[in-house]
Amino acid sequence: MTNPNNATITTVHRAEFTASDALKIPTLRILQDDGSLYDGATAPELDKDTALKMYDTMVFIRVLDERMLAAQRQGRISFYMQCLGEEATTVGSAAALSDQDMIMAQYREQGALRYRGFTLEQFMNQLFSNEKDLGKGRQMPVHYGSNAINYMTISSPLGTQIPQASGYAYAQKLRGLNALTLCYFGEGAASEGDFHAGLNMAAVHKAPVLFFCRNNGYAISTPANEQFVGDGIACRAVGYGMKAIRVDGADILAVYQATKMARDYALKHNEPVLLESMAYRLGAHSSSDDPSGYRSKEEEALWRKNDPIARFKAWLLKQGWLDEAADNAKTEQLRADILDALKVAEKVAKPGIEHLISDVYAEPIPALQQQLDELKAHIRKYPDAYPITAGRLD
Q1: What phi, psi does 352 have (nearest 5°)?
Q2: In whole angstroms, what is the distance from residue 219 CA to residue 371 CA?
Q3: Distance between CA atoms of 21 and 231, rounded to whole angstroms?
Q4: Where are the alpha helices (DSSP H) in 39-134?
Q5: Strands, sheet with 102-104, edge to edge from the N-terminal-most edge strand
Q6: Is 285 a catalytic residue?
Q7: Mean pLDDT over all residues of the chain?
Q8: Which residues does residue 245 pair with via DSSP β-bridges, in sequence order?
């Protein structure tokens, strides 16, 4: 008999529930806090240059985050978001990809962007929305994007990138490319309808996409236990008929190994995989957030002991691949370089106002041109209210 229901029919003759905790997803851990491996664990194959690039990227992002949050507090930029505590999550996963793979991010994945080759100057130009910004000043700070390194521009609304990733990966498959799409999102975004639509679409059409959930415990001020009742996010993959894996997001070796394994599987079978990283957002949600209103200092202090950079550094020292004195000197130089780049970028002129419409279409449509003309007239009428723009009108 055919089965039009597309479900396993195992017959029983007495009613019984399937327990809500019937499925429990294990968490992969390889690296201990002291830099040694857990008993039975095997480190992934990593050469010295790759490992040091991963470490340098993590340190770069940590220092950048510190400096730019301070810049926001000084009023030099309008907004910032740190990935403090999640550096291993984004860097470890990006390192396991091919450069041809597309990355669709949420907003806390600057580690993946840096690993791909985004320069210090490009970070600064975007954060200051100056005329050298690849996005021409149209986006909020931290909403990066780069066509050159296959990093899709970030959107503010939560979850929009999830079904987009499914469609993009499906197109990669149809074109016969040896590449896939990795889609980052937080556990809060997994509460959006786009999450369910995107996963179902990818599963049905067998799209090679890695759905990478950063479960960092909080969706702004909402703790995970007020968002969902199930066992995290990874267990949802089973409901959509896809593979899942959960990792310790502060263990970069585990993240790298899990992502590499997931990528190999997705490309071989043309199927999606859901990865869940279990980490902790050590900083505020953004520069507009005060976490003291919803979590204790004691909780934060406890999780600060689980520092992904310190753990990876200890492993590198054990390999003999890192010199601590040289590393400290390099970090201090990095702080100076970032401050210098900040001072340069904040003095670069803002984009001309015509860039609001310059490449939305091949040629601006009449309606957009009319709106731009009206805006220019308004600014000319009230130049004191728009001191930066008023002086640059033609």
Answers
A1: -65, 150
A2: 37
A3: 7
A4: 48-73, 87-95, 110-116, 120-127
A5: 27-28, 243-248, 273-278, 209-215, 181-186, 102-104, 151-152
A6: yes
A7: 95
A8: 275
The secondary structure element, H or E, covering residue 213 is: strand 209-215
> pLDDT class for 2, splitting at 50, 70, 90?
low
Those residues with Cβ within 8 angstroms of residue 373's Cβ, 6 or more apart along the chain or in another chain: none
pLDDT greater than 70 at residue 306? yes
Which parts of 175-287 fold into alpha helices (H)?
Answer: 193-205, 236-239, 252-269
Report residue 131: phi and psi, to 5°.
-70, -10
Q: Which of 312, 235, 229, 220 is nearest to 275 (CA)?
A: 235
269 residue type, one letter = H
Tens of pLDDT along 307-332? 999 999 999 999 999 999 999 999 99
Provide CB contacts within 8 A for 82, sequence distance 6+.
65, 69, 108, 283, 284
Give the tokens for residue 39.
């008993």
The three-state secondary structure class of 240 is: coil
Rounded (10°) angle between helices 87-95 and 48-73? 140
281 is catalytic: yes
CB–CB of 257/30 below 8 Å? Answer: yes
Residue 294 annotated in active site: yes
Residues in the chain: 394
Measured CA to CA, the distance from residue 52 to residue 59 in angstroms comes to: 10
123 vs 67: CA distance, rounded Å = 12
DSSP letter for each residue of 266-330: HHHHT--EEEEEE----S-SSTT--GGGTS-HHHHHHHHTS-HHHHHHHHHHHHT---HHHHHHH
Contact between residue 52 and residue 321 where contact means Cβ atoms under 8 Å apart: yes
Question: 3-state DSSP: the chain helix, strand, coil percent, rounded to 5?
Answer: 45, 10, 45
pLDDT digits (tens, 9 = 90+) for 178-200: 999 999 999 999 999 999 999 99
Mean local confidence (pLDDT), 291-296: 96
Q: Which of 38, 73, 138, 294 is catalytic?
A: 294
DSSP 125-151: HHHTT-TT-TTTT-S-TT---BTTTTE
Distance CA 393, CA 388 (A): 10
Nearest C-alpha neighbor of 273 from the set 354, 361, 339, 180: 180
The whole-angstrom separation of Cα 24 and Cα 202 is 23
Selection from 247, 254, 259, 163 nearest residue 210 by Cα = 259
